[in-house]
Write a structure and sequence with these properties.
The chain is an alpha/beta fold and 239 residues long. It contains 9 helices and 11 strands. It has helices at residues 8-17, 48-53, 68-76, 89-102, 110-120, 148-155, 174-179, 213-217, 226-238; strands spanning 3-5, 22-25, 38-39, 58-62, 81-84, 129-132, 134-136, 141-142, 158-160, 184-188, 208-211. The strands form 3 sheets. It has a 5-stranded parallel sheet with strand order 3-2-1-4-5, with helices on both faces. A 4-stranded parallel sheet has the order 9-6-10-11.
């Protein structure tokens, strides 16, 4: 089986479960750190000619991370493409199982069972807090409706204020975010790399939680520890 992955979280899931199956991955596929495969470009601009030349049995993609024209070009070249849709935590587990089976896994890996158990056993939050969650700067963009990251936060007791916006990733002026007066501003380190020196200064007087984007937005082996890692980062912002 030869697989090309166009989704960083799926790359990590396949590499950990089925070593040697991946023939290619994007430039953004950073886990596992020692992954040694052909790099095929970005998630939004993959080199479809190079992917086709690798002669994969399957390309795995995601409806949010990858562009329809690129996937259509691969299909036109005779490449089979599996497209996932992940908008919440339970859906992530179902899609991971589907992808791994399609890639040749004979059974569910232990890490997937561990992750699903961790999230199903998560205690109900003692209290709920409000948040805004910027995911880009210049222009400012935030989590909106129907997102995986939004569901992750909701299960941790954090309700982001744009969860019912008409758009999934709306552009919101920073002044409006400040005026919304959330309990906390959640700043992930991807897709935009917010840091202690780049992000919190835009929200004076508001607690800011710098969180791991991999644990907030990736659906893969990181889900085994995501609730713990994110919970610690959120609590640190409130101290």
């Amino acid at each position: 089986m030869r697989v090309v992955s166009l989704v960083p979280s799926l790359t990590e899931a396949v590499a950990l479960t089925l070593p040697g199956v991946l023939a290619g991955a994007t430039d953004w596929c950073s886990h596992p750190a020692d992954l040694d495969v052909t790099r095929v470009g970005g998630t939004k601009n993959p080199r479809t000619d190079l992917i086709a030349a690798l002669a994969p049995d399957l390309v795995i993609a995601n409806e949010e991370e990858n562009r329809v024209p690129d996937l259509d070009a691969l299909r036109a070249a005779g490449v089979e493409v599996l497209v996932t849709e992940v908008r919440n935590v339970p859906q992530a587990f179902g899609e991971l199982a589907r992808v791994l089976t399609a890639c040749g896994a004979a059974a569910r890996p232990g890490w997937l069972d561990e992750a699903e158990q961790a999230w199903s056993a998560l205690p109900a939050p003692e209290c709920r807090t409000t948040a805004v969650v910027p995911v880009w700067r210049r222009p400012w963009m935030v989590l909106g409706r129907d997102t995986f990251a939004g569901d992750v936060l909701a299960r941790l007791g954090v309700d982001h204020l744009y969860a019912h916006h008409a758009e999934r990733y709306p552009r919101i002026p920073v002044e409006e975010m400040r005026e919304a007066a959330p309990d906390v501003v959640v700043l992930p380190d991807e897709p935009y790399r917010f840091t202690a020196a780049d992000g919190p200064e835009a929200f004076p007087g508001l607690p800011c939680a710098l969180v791991s984007g991999r644990h907030l937005t990736w659906y893969g082996p990181s889900l085994t520890e995501a609730a713990t890692v994110l919970g610690e980062a959120l609590r640190a912002a409130w101290r």
